[in-house]
Amino acid sequence: MVKKIGAVLLAVGLVLPYGPARIITVVWQGVPTILFSAVPVLITIAYVLHSFVPPLAQFHQRYGQGLHGLFRVVFFVLAGGYLAMSLAKEHGGWPAPLHVLVALAVTGALLYWGQGRGTKAERLPLLLLICAGIPTIAYFLDAAHAGELRYGGWVFTVGYLVAAAGEVQGLRAAPKISHGG
To answer: pTM to 2 decimals?
Structure first.
C-alpha cells in the first residue's frame, strides 16, 4: 500500500508546478536536459506504471535480471552526467555541485544497501527509484535553497520518499542472496 501511495504522489507531482515550471514540460528543452532530465522522468513514469499495471510488473519480473543490469548502467551514466553538468560553468540551470553530491550520496547508499537483498527482479523497482532519485534530490535541494520550490516539488519529493520507503520495507523482508539473482 505504501508503494502505491508513493506512486500516486509521484504521478501527481509530475504535473504540478515544481518551481518556475512543471517537471513534465521542462525536460524537453535541449539535448543535455533531455538526456539527464527526461530520462529520469520516463523512469519515474515506468515506476508508476509498474505499480499500477500488472502486465508491466510481470514483464519486469520475467526480464528483471537484464533490466536490472541496464538500469545500473543508466544510474552510473546519470550520476556522471549530473556531476559533470553541475561542475561545468557554461551550463546554467543545473543544480549546484553540493546538491548533486548529496543526491549521489543518498542514491549511492540506497544502491549499495540493496545489494544481495532479494532477486534482481525484486530490486528493480527500487533501482528505478534510485535512477530517478538523482535529479529528484538534487533539484529539490536546489529549488529549496533558492526559495523557488512550489507545492508540486513537495508532492513529488514526498512521493519519492514514500515510494522508496515502501520498496526498502519490501526488500528488508526479502531473503539475502549471496550472489546472482
So the answer is: 0.91
Q: pLDDT by residue (tens digit) across 49-70?
A: 999 999 998 998 999 899 999 9
- Residue matched to cell numbers 549499495: 112
Written in H, E and C, the secondary structure of 70-138 is HHHHHHHHHHHHHHHHHHCCCCCCCCCHHHHHHHHHHHHHHHHHHCCECCHHHHHHHHHHHHHHHHHHH
Q: Distance of alpha carbon 99 from its chain centroid, rounded? A: 15
- The model's pLDDT over 156-175, given as tens digits with 9 standing for 90+, comes to 999 999 999 999 998 888 77
Q: Rounded CA gap, 109 and 147, in Å?
A: 27
Give Cα 159 to chain centroid, integer Å.
Answer: 11
In the chain, what are the domain boundaries? Answer: 2-172
